[in-house]
Automatic annotation (TrEMBL):
This is A-kinase anchor protein 14. One of its GO terms (molecular function) is kinase activity. The lineage of its organism: Eukaryota, Metazoa, Chordata, Craniata, Vertebrata. It holds the Pfam family AKAP28. GO terms for cellular component: cAMP-dependent protein kinase complex.
């Protein structure tokens, strides 16, 4: 049985703003199947001007604070890029992709089912590394 990939309707290029991008990333990650113990915060990082497009970079930082450890030992970041083409019609939706911290693999929201395990793996690897140092 193939799982259904949940996605949202992304804003068109002509209706895009940095704030709208952040809002839509929040809307998109609300479709992810992650346990409610995970908390996150999102931020806009920078705008990048390319020859045929403009890219807007964002970061979503995840952690699992607990009563015993309200300040988590490690966090996991997911980096989003929203790209607006300078050559395609501005009435088309923006292109969106994301990468996980410590990974080069590029994911597209409409083609990929997010896995909570990815966040756990990043945090576990960081804790292992800190304990070795």
């Amino acid at each position: 049985s193939k799982s259904v990939i949940k996605s949202i309707q992304w804003v068109t290029g002509n209706n895009f703003t940095v704030e709208k991008g952040l809002q839509q990333i929040e809307e998109h990650i609300s479709t992810w199947d992650v346990h409610r113990s995970w908390l996150h915060w999102s931020e806009f990082l920078r705008e990048e001007e390319l020859k045929y497009s403009k890219r807007y970079h964002y970061r979503v930082c995840w952690s699992v604070p607990t009563r015993r450890k309200p300040i988590p030992r490690a966090t996991a970041s997911v980096y989003f890029v929203i790209e607006i083409s300078k050559t395609k019609p501005a009435t088309l939706p923006v292109e969106v992709f994301f990468t996980l911290e410590s990974s080069r693999l590029i994911h597209r929201p409409e083609q990929c089912q997010f896995r909570e395990k990815w966040l756990k793996d990043i945090i576990e690897n960081k804790i292992i590394l800190m304990e070795r140092l």
